[in-house]
């Protein structure tokens, strides 16, 4: 349910669209009807691995992670999303196939959700949304190249430093064990590294 | 120089746009004037690491790689592009800053090149190009998630198998040493792995 009253300030998604595109003509009324809202408790599951991927999530408030279970049954975290980020298994969403990943709330989280059909309809009806998503993906794609460089070619402690300087909020909000899995560290190694960094700052 | 004569078949870029978007109204005349053409010999350099990134490349024929020099002066290859793929340091191109990467031809290669200003102008003038690039980046972004999963979470020989089944052409056309660098293997390890795979097939 959305309140379209003029006294209410714009929805965070609309603010984000206006900020990214520079287009201030687009409003709540045009875009929000394509979405539903969702609220999840901490540890709530938004998408299950192996189930059909029917929704794309926009984080209004909170934090999500995307992970899969490896051969040993360990959870391997590949992505986080906080406020104003999008999340889905894009490959599966595009064809409504089985998701290769689970999406879980790390905090109490509010999202907008959109089906693939509504997503396509919105993009056809509002060219500004093509522009918006082109820019969103351009950034995401640029970030993924840096990410690949970090995980495949950097020493572990340098990866930690770059990640911390680019995404300080993640370091604050994400549980140690999950952050370690994302970085490809053991929780013990991450804990050692943090102690070392704190010591260096104290000097 | 482009020949717009009606007897000539469409340029590969226009064919690609039509294929991806399903829009068959867009033609050579509208889009190609935004581009220049370039031809490079094998080992020719299209973009130098540390120089401003002013161009975006579309591969008409041939094969490119994107790499950087690590602390030890070793070349680390992160991406390849063949026919109908785009390549640049997207992060640097968006702001015309210094490129973090070198782009080199692995074969005699023909490209289209576009400046950032022309790219933005083309996107403003032709909404179908917003649609095209949104879809191109959506795919690239989906592929990058799989790539991150492969390099960070898969055993090396499984990574090799997945890569080979998804991109068989790369395996044929890319020199062993560069392919090994891309996969994060030593050339010796790659050579051993290939021998093992061939043996298994012979059985």
Give structural notes.
Two copies of one chain form a homodimer. With 203 residues, chain A is α+β, with helices and mostly antiparallel strands. Chain A has nine helices and eight strands. Chain A has a four-stranded antiparallel beta sheet. A four-stranded antiparallel beta sheet of chain A has the order 2-7-4-5. In chain A, strand 4 and strand 5 (75-81) form a beta hairpin. In chain A, helix 4 (116-125) packs across helix 5. The radius of gyration of chain A is 19 Å and the shape is globular. The first copy, chain A, starts with 11 loop residues before the first helix and ends with a helix. Chains A and B meet through strand 5, helix 3 and helix 5 of A and strand 5, helix 3 and helix 5 of B.
